[in-house]
Amino acid sequence: MTFAEFRDRCERTAAGLASMGVTAGTRVSWQLPTNFESMVLCVALARLEAVQNPIIPIYREREVGFCLRQTEAEMMIVPGEFRGFDFTAMANELAADMPDCTVVTLAPGELPDGDPANLPTVPVIAAEQGDYPARWIYYTSGTTSDPKGAIHTDFTVMTEAQTMVDALSLSEDDNWPLVFPFTHIGGIGLLLASLIAGPKLLVTDTFNPTETTAFLSANDMTVGGSGAYFFMGYLAEQARQPDTPLFPNLRATTGGGSAKPKGLHARVKNELGGGGISSSYGLTEIPIVTFAMPGDDEWSLDTTEGRAVPGYDFKFVDLDENPVPDGTEGQILVRGPSRCLGYLDERLNAAAFDDEGYFRTGDLGVRNPEGYIAITGRVKDVIIRNGENISAKAVEDLLFSHPLVAEVAAIGLPDERTGERCCAVVSLKDADQSLTVEDVRAFLIDKGLMRQMIPEQVETVQVLPRNPAGKVLKKDLRARFSSAEAE
Fold first, then answer.
1. pLDDT in tens, 190-201
2. Same domain assignment for residues 374 and 386
3. In what order do the strands lie in the sheet with 457-460?
4. Below-70 pLDDT ranges, the chain
5. Residue 145 burial (CB < 10 Å; 0-12/13-18/19+)?
6. Nearest 5°: phi and psi at 383?
7. Can you tell me the distance from the alpha carbon of 395 to that of 402, in angstroms, rounded to the nearest whole number?
8. How far is CA 168 from CA 20, 35, 293, 306, in A?
9. What is the spatial distance between Cα 430 and Cα 405, in angstroms, rounded to a whole number?
10. Same domain, residue pair 118 and 195
11. Strand positions, DSSP E, 26-185
């Protein structure tokens, strides 16, 4: 689809939606795969100034119902059946208790259609950032039992996109992928960045390491994405044909969502080519607040997520929110132009934002004197063994360098004696090999890790469970291995 075709289809779809009653302020939830239809629908809703709530496809009755009720959705748009699940049946069941909510099913290739001549005038761009109304509600699971709805504006999502364009020097000569759910806040960022700068956007509805990599290779990917999970897939496919570059014109890769393992940047640079990984860091509530530039030094590219994007202010504080100096690990608080307006449930705002408007990310990190920021873990992803804090990420980074390990997640499991014990869950490069607690202990001692942090339990899995954005689902691992005995 060309950009002109995209524009025209968005206008026709907006006219079709308008004939169905969608207008400025109409609350529309939608749960669609990553495809052209979902992107057209998204921009068509924006054209009408609707308030839209994109929902990630893995959400089911409990989460989707919560989103619909909290947003007071007037329309729910679903794909019918996708990947063996009947989204229409779920939506109809949920909407039965919401008489003001209409369910619309979009079959593959179908979109509402109408005459653009009947559309209202194009919305006027607000003069100041504070004048932009709430137009987007993105839910994040976070650490609470119910998802949290972060309220965004056209300004905040456009800011995210412009940051991508500037940091990566995107142009119409580039080809880059959208291989994670478009309904994630990063999805609208990638689409808008393509509309701003003109790179070709390569779209797949699901990520399959073999098929997706072949698709991206055939379309000459020049800027890669979108995180450690995806890079590992590309690397595995490149290893199958080491003498033929999959991406001969690759100039950079970019990732976010979670901190990358140490050493992955060098592997990407050496095995895939280009400049390695230019990481960014951000959250649903405040996307892309740091960016590593392709020209940064190798140490910074490998071990940090770059420096603060211009316009963003950071605080690093201890557990009592007292400032800590550069070089000292602390909780990360940040504010800047992409920060959401707050949560739909206003009761959550006091805990999420401090008195100066900084967002409490829940992440731990260190800023060095040059301003580079490394993510060291989560405030609630700390394993507390005998009253001592163990950084899960510190254990993961070292074990990732083990020659047998493909992926690793360190988790805390309940322990009657120590409170929690450290468990390393590993996926091995060769399924015929094994890795014991003794192997891990010897390796980590040799690496200089303090004995208090060495895992007491090692579990092997074929693959780590992840959500579609590539984040490891540690709660699933804890549930699976909590009853297992430490060796």
1. 999 999 999 999
2. no
3. 405-415, 419-428, 457-460
4. 142-145, 257-258, 387-388, 485-487
5. exposed
6. -90, 125
7. 11
8. 40, 24, 7, 13
9. 9
10. no
11. 27-30, 51-54, 75-78, 81-82, 85-86, 102-105, 136-140, 148-152, 175-178
